[in-house]
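Morning - phosphoenolpyruvate inputs below, output right after.
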Amino acid sequence: MVVKKGNGIQLKGELNVPGDKSISHRSIIFGSLANGTTRVRGLLESQDCLNTVNAFQLMGVNIQKEHDKDTYLIEGVGVNGLKEPKKLINCGNSGTTMRLLTGLLASLDFYSVLYGDESLSNRPMKRVIEPLQEMGANIWCRNKQLAPISIKGKVLKGINYSLPVASAQVKSALLLAGLNVEEEIKIIQPKQSRNHTEIMLKKFGVNLVDDVNTISLPGGKKNLHAQNIVIPGDISSASFFIAAALLIPNSEIKIKNVGINDTRSGIIDVINKMGGTIEFDHIRNAEYEKVADLTIKYQNLKSTVIEGDLIPRLIDELPIVALIASQAEGTTIIRNAAELRVKESDRIKTIVQELGKLGADIEELPDGMVISGPCNLKGGVNVSSHGDHRIAMTLRIANLISSEDVVIDDLECIKTSFPEFNQILSSIIQY
Ligand SMILES: O=C(O)C1=C[C@@H](OP(=O)(O)O)[C@@H](O)[C@H](O)C1
Ligand SMILES: C=C(OP(=O)(O)O)C(=O)O
């Protein structure tokens, strides 16, 4: 039995994680499309979400932070009130910004161009472009599948579409296009993916039928009514601290106000399957999204199998789950997760490569990985985040449990989703 290391440190205390990234993007989008002023508390001010804010400002929406307060005010212009942007829209590193906007802009009567950084320029866009073209959209892009994307919006037809992959971004793109369509939009998903768009559309007063794997948006122009939104803490950001507390001896932390929507809480199920316990307090419903305070203590874990319906419920957490598995007793298998290959990096390849350099027993599968533990992470090497925020944060936690220091090439990319990551981590480390 290998002894897990915390290098003499432990994690203690209470913390809050910043607002949920998926819900933040959607608040900006629906707030901009509503009639009236939407107030958003706890918006995630990460680079990805700021790119969405900039996009709507370019299309004439007044979005401002209230002086000295944690609240953004969005003066909605109505579904047809956006103006043609005079500049190209920079989506940066954000797949959510690019895919959701492609859907929305396909049905609005003006010309626009979306582009992104090198990583985003290599991520698949055919998955949104193809069904939108089936609805009649005018969209052009590089090699018929990659950004930059040019759109000349027009009146679209309805669609009855079975998604080939369980993607919340594709589902949301079609629903956004559907806000301006006279016919029904019906989407059948192979597995349940995050449902924040469905929840928020209903909150803004749109009549939508959402029956687990079938979503129907009736035809006709929609009117969205401005709302007050309070954004829960992001469980994907929390997962790095959850992992650190589970793996570092004598740790005990409480993460307050975390969103635990069932379509996002797969990591909790996995920890339970590994024999671990996370305590939930003060479970409540904030604007249709479930929220709780989570207490996590150091504990011994065993291996498990992660597959099937669980995968979309923890897709962004799989890099940090791989690190947890490297410290659990036995062989953990992750499969049905080929989607990891088309994120900010090929996350199967990058996590296997980088945790492997630290000494983890980890192998690649075409659609996942096999990890045996517990293993002593030796560290003492240079590793790369590959410019991917979730790989960077996983390696930062791996550094805490490695015998020798790990040098990570690029930590700047963390600002994509979690600019306060280092500061919050430092605040709970005790020596
Ligand atoms: O809709 C969203 O907000 C997201 C959906 C997921 O992507 P896919 O839709 O590609 O599965 C996820 O990985 C991404 O971080 C955010
Ligand atoms: C995949 C992610 O985001 P996006 O697709 O929006 O770039 C992520 O945040 O891990």
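Note: DSSP finds twelve helices and 23 strands in the chain.

O.
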